Amino acid sequence: MPASNASTGYSRLQIALHWLVFALIAQQYIFKDAMSATWDRITDGLEAGFDPLVLAHVAGGALVMIFALWRLTLRTRRGVPQAIEASKVRGILAKLTHVGLYALMILMPVSGSVAWFGGVEAAAKGHNVLKIVLLALVALHVVGALYHQFVLRDGTLARMRRAQG
Ligand code: HEM
Ligand code: HEM
Fold this sequence. Notes:
The protein contains 6 helices and no strands. It has 165 residues and is an all-alpha fold. It is elongated, with a radius of gyration of 18 Å.
């Protein structure tokens, strides 16, 4: 994803949004059972009572999308630091991972909402497939971050911890 203007580092806001979204996505997986159980009841035609964890899934997922769109706006308006690339191929891999993560931060809430608010079972099926793709991309992303931190020791992780520029 090319940045229109490069900056020396991520801003405090960009860093805060990155880790806030990480926490929100983690809670979507950790507390997923409440949403799955409620969805099963609904598709079985049963009554589903109020569950705060279901509300958290809907609201948390919506926030993920809002924050992802906000981050994309910040990328174009403010810019992001130049990628630290170990090699051309790994640079492309990192870029593709970031594009995929942004796409899923939007597709997950959209598919979930179409299922939940529109009662579309196919969208729930899609949501269930995408949740695996998202998890795989996050795993790849974390492996990449750890590789930069412990093998290359090039300060990539520090960029997402301390604001600059
Ligand atoms: C980044 C945002 C989201 C993530 C990471 C996420 C993740 C998940 C996960 C891991 C499950 C459990 C599936 C299972 O193993 O049974 C799930 C289920 C579900 N989610 Fe989300 N979700 C997100 C956003 C949303 C939103 C915004 C809504 C609704 C407005 C939603 C509606 C649902 C529904 C209806 C299910 C039940 C589907 C089923 O069990 O077949 N999700 N979600
Ligand atoms: C749900 C989990 C996560 C998602 C969706 C996510 C998403 C992203 C995205 C889209 C970027 C690119 C930022 C941009 O340029 O706009 C990024 C950067 C970054 N992420 Fe994550 N991330 C997650 C978790 C993590 C974790 C757990 C770590 C650390 C172990 C991490 C470390 C980093 C680092 C170091 C960068 C900066 C890379 C660079 O400067 O080139 N992320 N993340």
